[in-house]
Amino acid sequence: MNNAYLLALIIASGLLSANAFSNCEFDTDDADSPNFMDKIVDCEEQPAKISSKKKSSIAPATKLYGEGTVDPVSGIAERPVVAPGSMNHSPGKVFAARQPYSLRPNAKFEQSVTIAIQRLHVEMAHYCSKGWSIENQWTEPDAQAEGDFFLHFSFRCAG
User: What is the mean pLDDT of the chain?
Assistant: First the structure.
């Protein structure tokens, strides 16, 4: 492999990289150094280490539907128990809630996505009475009925 090819490869990977590290900047003289390839490998590993730290710092969401959240230690599925109609707040805690809705032509208004969103907001207020942020939302089909779906919100209570 010639030095011009390596330099072009380094420049291209540097342009495509989302993160710029000061010790990962190369010039033409670097290609002649004996530890040149080690430096390239070290620079490629740094973004992977940072992204794995970000993933591990994300708290798992407590599911408010189905069986709830499985405790990794006990293996028991748990759901938070709160009094109906009460207003609670857990600063920084992440929850996942879902509501069913239908897109079938014969669906009633009570099965609309509008009502599903309203019910999710009531649930978010129930668990995060001092405010929240919606971190993610997604939809999954209901396997029991074609045209029916579940709208999911992942939300974090305000600190």
Answer: 77
The angle formed by the CA atoms of residues 98, 151 and 81, to the nearest 5 degrees, is 5
The DSSP secondary structure of 64-82, one letter per residue, reads -STT-EE-TTT--EE----
**How many residues are recorded in the chain?**
159
Per residue in 18-38, pLDDT (tens digit) is 444 446 666 666 767 777 666
Give Cα separations from 36 to 31, 87, 139 (angstroms). 6, 60, 48
CA nearest neighbour of 147 among 110, 90, 84, 105? 105
* Annotated domain spans of the chain: 3-56, 62-157
Secondary-structure percent of the chain, ordered helix, strand, coil, rounded to 5: 40, 25, 40
- Alpha-carbon distance of 137 to 99, in angstroms, equals 11
Question: Contact at 8 Å (CB) between 155 and 132?
Answer: yes
Please give the DSSP secondary-structure letter assigned to residue 42. Answer: H
pLDDT, tens only, 75-113: 777 777 777 777 889 899 999 999 999 999 999 999 999
